[in-house]
Each structure stands twice: as C-alpha cells, then as structure tokens.
Amino acid sequence: MTYQSVNPYDGKLLKTFDELTDKQLEAALATADTCFETWRHTAFAKRSAVVAKVAAIMRARIDEFARLATLDMGMLIEQARSEVVLSADITEYYARNAEHFLAPQDLKPSSGEAVVESSPIGVLFGVQPWNFPYYQLVRFAVPNLMAGNVVMVKHAGIVPQCAIAFEKLWIEAGAPAGAYTNLLISYDQVSRVIDDPRIKGVALTGSVEAGRSVAGRAGQNLKKSTMELGGSDAFIVLEDADLDKTVKWAVTGKMNHTGQSCVSPKRFIVVEELADRFLDKFRVALAALEPGDPMDKATTLGPLSTEAALIQLLGQVERAVAKGATVVMGGKRIDRPGWFMEPTILTDIKPDNPAFREEFFGPVALFFRVKNEDEAVELANDSDFGLGGSVFTKDVARGKRVARRVDTGMMFVNQPTSSAPDLPFGGIKNSGYGRELSSLGIQEFVNKKLVRVA
Ligand code: NAP
User: Fold this and answer.
1) Whose CA is nearest to atom 9 of ligand 1?
2) What domain count does the chain have?
3) pTM of the predicted model, to two decimals?
4) CATH value at residue 318
5) Is the C-beta atom of 408 inside 6 A of ligand 1?
6) pLDDT one-digit tens code per residue, 151-192
7) Ligand 1 centroid from CA 69, angstroms
8) 309: which residues sit within 8 A by CB, 6+ positions away?
C-alpha cells in the first residue's frame, strides 16, 4: 500500500510518501504513551488553549487546507472551504464545552455520597477515510484530546498531504509531542498497533469491510471500539412535500462531494402522487451540473476520488442494469481526463437486484416509487444500513412521526442528513456503533468511574 497524492481532475501524480518503518512506528507509540502521562493531568484550560489555537489556525489558513483537499481527492473548492470551517467550528465547540460535558456527576444516592467521574483512558488509535479529510480527523481527535486522551491516526492512503498538514497544525498550535500523531502505515502495521498494549481504544470511519477487520481485531484484544461505517440513506418524499424545495435539497444532498458522503441520500423513495413530477425536476437539475476543474468556483460537478472508485461505481451500475434496473439518466464515464462520472438515476430496482442492498458511493441515485407513507417506511427500513435519512412533508408533526419509524441513527425532517458540532453523528446495523460529535461523542473513550463514600 502506498501513500500517494494523485489529482483526480487530471490523473497526475503529485507526491508520494514513504511508510513508517517498524522502528519509527515503535518510537511514535512510545512518544504518545509518554505524552499521555502528562496530558491526562493537564488542566482543561490548558488543553482548551491548544485546541482553540488549532481552530484559529484553520480559520486563518482556510484556503491552504482546502486546496490540499481538492488536490488530494477532488472535492469542489467551495465545499472544501466549508469543510475546513465546519472543522474549526467543531474544534471550538469542544474547546468551550468539554469540561462541562465531563464534569463529575453527583448520583445523589439514598445514603452517603456517590459520584461518577470521567477520566481519560490512554492512547487511542483512529483509522480514517479520505472523503472529508479534516472533518473526520477532527471528529475523532478533538473531543478525545480534550478528554485527556492522546491520539494516533492512520489516514487514508490517497490524502497524505491533508494528513500531514493536519498533524503539523497541532505542533504549530503548541500541542506536546505525541498528543496527535499521524501514522503513514500499512494494514499489517495497523493490526499490530491495535494489538499493542499501549493502545486503549480504537475508532474507525470507513467501509463495512474495513470495519469488520478493525473491529474484529479490537474485539480480540478486548478493546473498546467505535465504528462509523457506510450508509444507504433514504430520502422520503411524501405527497404533501413542497416539490421545488424538496428537489433542491435532493440535488444538494445527493451531489455534496459528488455523492461521496456516507450520509448523502442514496435511495429516493417518493410517494406515487408526486413521483413523476419529482423525477422530472430532479433529472433536469442534475443534467445542469457542469464538470470541470474542482479548483474553479464555477464547477458544479467534481471528479470521483480515484479511478478505482470510478470503475467500481460504473461496475455497480452495469450489474444493476443486468439485473433489471432502468437507467433514467447517465450511467457512464464522462469522456475527458480525470475520474468524472455522469450524474445517474436508476429505477426499477427490485429486492433481488444486488443494487437494492448496496451502497453507491458517488453521483448515483436509486429511485423508488411507493404507494403511501407506510410503504415508504417499510422500504426505508429494508436495508442492512442504518446511518441517516430524511423525510419531506409540509406537515412537520407527520414528518416527526415518520422519522420515529425509520430505523437509523439520525433522521432529518425537511432537510437531508447533515452534520453540526452539537448534533450526535452515527448509525446502527451495518452502519456501525457509537456516536461522534455533541456531548455524546466525548463520552466514548472515557472511564466512567464510580466513587462511593459510605
Ligand atoms: P475504506 O476503504 O474502508 O477506508 C477507510 C480507512 O480504513 C482508510 O484509512 C483505509 O486505508 C483503512 N482500511 C481499509 N481497509 C483496512 C484494513 N483491512 N485494515 C486496516 N485499515 C484499513 O473506506 P473509504 O473508501 O475510504 O471511505 C468510504 C466509506 O466510508 C463509505 O462506505 C462511507 O459511507 C464510509 N464513511 C462513513 C462515515 C460515517 O461517519 N459513518 C463517514 C465517512 C465515510 P487505505 O486508504 O490506506 O486503504
């Protein structure tokens, strides 16, 4: 496995990076372990000052960070800028609130005293995906560092420039050596890091396959893990939805980062009264997107992250069609350099079609027509995934009712699934377990210790 930055816009190799030797990895683990012994006793105010500085640097250098993301994996530059801003928001949020979230909790027992204290557990290891190359790191690293843990991260092989820039940011902000460590390591080394007794917890964001492998290894070692995995979010449109607003959200949600988001809507489930009109408008809006240089603010359709990802997605579409799906639009590679794919809508996907259960990670929308609300809920729940989802209706009470019936970790009414510092993020079923962000995210890797006085 290699750490390479290849520009998805034109396929040019920009930089290659060496993996760590076993000796370098051992030194990094030792430094992190030593750092924990100091960092765990560092006052919240001091930790908070470092973390707030990280946010300030991100804000001061938005363009620099955004540019690296666009070069490494082709994200449209304005979206990359928004990602940096959101990352800074999350960082500030924990700098401000961590102490309060982890304050000792008085249980007020019937006699004597009983308090639950939250203490850090040690060096944590995170395995992270390329698709939001700073936001994913922040979600894992910042709350855990504020809790007094220290973190080591294996980032995805295709975003080494982002991974290295993010590590430098911590050093620049004054974090002690070993508080945040970027590891350019192989899968074999990942396994050995998980086995290492100095590592006390493991977090992965990525595909189901990677989750099985990393969670399995953590389980063998009886180490706590959190898993943020794939999704196939339902976008439910009821007959009383505001059609124009809903189509706008459908395009924004679907095409955020060219559909390469775990929570981008993947299954559009529309009640038949509105189905034809929705499909017409959705198709017209998707057809208006213009491929181009993701560095250019005017571009509305970016490339996929790698050629392998493009080939995999085209193959999924081909197999879906071979099993009876109909292509409403798109379905092909765009004839130009780089890893571009046409915005695509597939329909007539029956339960025996493999596409019915797969995650399509890119600009492909699966369209389903249903009779009514009940059928919409049933179809939404007929999935191995359970990450996010959304429902569109003018009747908010009805929207909330439907949201309660869909089995996922997150449901949104009248907007597609999105993320904010104070909203918990995570899923159920094959979408994983545990939560990141909000007051919940900071509780995953702390020891909830009871102190009882007779
Ligand atoms: P991926 O291939 O699973 O990679 C994720 C990370 O895991 C990368 O760092 C990768 O390293 C590493 N990895 C993969 N297999 C591994 C193994 N056997 N042992 C050790 N490390 C391994 O996923 P991706 O293609 O980058 O990301 C897309 C997936 O992530 C989608 O399914 C998406 O829905 C999901 N995702 C979920 C969330 C969430 O919060 N639930 C957020 C974002 C993305 P290399 O890059 O070096 O292979």
Assistant:
1) 156
2) 2
3) 0.98
4) 3.40.309.10
5) no
6) 999 999 999 999 999 999 999 999 999 999 999 999 999 999
7) 17
8) 260, 339, 361, 362
